[in-house]
Design brief:
By secondary structure, the chain is an all-alpha fold. The chain has two helices and no strands.
Length: 56
């Protein structure tokens, strides 16, 4: 059985964020600051509230 080198899953059109791009940038910048201050390379968001806060 052959496996493709790349898998692409189409998920439809991208929806508009429920907040401004500036607000999105502010949220991500604040998260990256917290990550840097705590020497974190990544975060895993498991709460739907947190996922919605950072991704819309």
């Amino acid at each position: 059985m052959e496996r493709p080198d790349f898998f692409s899953l189409k998920n439809g059109e991208k929806v508009k964020l429920p907040f401004t791009n500036q607000e999105y940038d502010r949220r991500v910048t604040n998260l990256r600051t917290v990550m840097s201050n705590n020497n974190l390379d990544m975060v895993i968001l498991t709460s739907m509230h947190n996922i919605a806060y950072y991704t819309g």
